[in-house]
Amino acid sequence: MADAVDLAALCRGEKGTWDAFVRRYAGLIVSAVRGVAREQAEVEDLVQEVFLRLCKDGFRLMRTYDPTRAGLSTWLTIVARSTARDVLRRRQVPSTPIDAVPEALLAVMPKTTERIKYPDTLLSPRQKLVLTLIYEQDLDVAEIAQSLGVDPQTVRSTHHKAMLKLRSYFAQEDTQPAAGDERPTNRLST
Amino acid sequence: MSGGNEFNEAPLWRRWREGQAGAGDAAAEPDALTLAVYAEGRLGRPGVDPETDPAVATVEAWMAAHPDLLADLAAARSAHDEIADAAIVARASALIARPAGNVSALSLRATRPVWQDAMAWSGIAATLLAAVLIGFQLGNDNVVDLSDSNPTVEQSALIGSPNAFLVTDDEDSGI
Question: Do B32 and A75 touch (CB under 8 A)?
């Protein structure tokens, strides 16, 4: 997919370049937005919102794109889906009249803060991500590998190492007396 | 979907997860370009294990807290075109207006030779200078003439006395 576009002319707001850009990438943005839209009828508006976001404030967003770091199609797809999600989220305004809401639901609840019991650094971000995808998103190894752009064996290895850490941590925790808030320290390095 | 089939450590993960409520909320949201670089597998320094690279870790920490966004990466990797409606293209094209007609007039003005501008401004300046000089000369001549000779009655009446305004007529003094 050729990504050639005169970014400098585009960011100067040259009409001809903008028209060519729209003709070239409208299909890509339609495709990206379609995966987020709830209804087909929303697609046209969402595509317009994406183009609007690209050009508003003197092409401020467009100027953040660096062609030496990522392909324009990749970047546009991420921008398009993110914009579409933002727009749909903004449109989800509560439509129930406040009088129709039971008073108990409007009561201010005392703020409760959940306590993080385990050290956040025990698992690496990748290990947390892999475990989240396996156990919460129910993805299989091939899907995770594709999503992360890694080998399937890397996913299995990441899962294995993470589980070793968790087993070791909980084994220490379970053998310690319950008194106090002392938590075992993780001694695994990987 | 065979996540539950291949791996059976879900209770361990759930136990960990319950103790991690709220963790990851503070993860910094990566910008679109960083996500795009990550999607293309180009994030991080060459030769550094991606799992320990801070840039990669930042993205993966965010993704762990927002796993639904993983679909964005998958979509970005498999980005493909559709046929866009002509109406969509026309509407988006209209976001940037065509240049107005007076822009071409401005461009013609800009292409005029510099010497023509210089001549025009020089002419205006010369005219103003001449008017000032002539006016000064005429005024100066009048002052010299009046000081060199005794003013006649007509001249006095013409020029007037400095105190003329202070002199009041008898009929006015009664007011």
Answer: yes
The closest alpha carbon to A86, from A25, A44, A37, A40, belongs to A37
Please report the number of interchain residue pairs, chain A to chain B, with beta-carbon separation below 8 angstroms.
Answer: 210
Please answer yes or no on whether A118 and B19 come within 8 Å at the CB atom: yes
Closest CA in chain B for residue A154: B51
How far apart, in whole angstroms, are the C-alpha atoms of residue A72 and residue A6? 12
Query: In whole angstroms, what is the distance from residue B37 CA to residue B48 CA?
Result: 16
Residue with tokens 């070791």: A168
- Enumerate domains of chain A plus CATH numbers: 7-91 (1.10.1740.10), 120-190 (1.10.10.10)
Q: Mention every residue, 6+ apart, whose C-beta is less than 8 A from residue B89.
A: A22, A23, A26
Contact B23 A116 (CB under 8 A): yes
Six token digits for residue B87: 């109406």
Which is nearest to A30 in space by CA: A71, A77, A75?
A77
What are the DSSP calls for B7-31, one per residue?
A: ---HHHHHHHHHTTTTTTTTPPPPP
- Do B10 and B4 form a contact (C-beta atoms < 8 A)? yes
Query: In the prediction, which pLDDT does A190 show?
Result: 44
B101 in contact with A at a CB cutoff of 8 Å? no
pLDDT in tens, A1-60: 446 789 999 999 999 999 999 999 999 999 999 989 988 889 999 999 999 999 999 999
CA–CA gap between residue B83 and residue A97 (Å, rounded): 41
d(CA B128, CA A64) in angstroms, rounded, equals: 54
Model ipTM value: 0.76
CA distance A168 to A166: 5
Residue A120's CB is within 10 A of a number of other CB atoms, namely 14
pTM score: 0.64
The whole-angstrom distance between B112's CA and the closest CA on chain A is 24
Cross-chain Cβ contact A28/B82 below 8 Å = yes
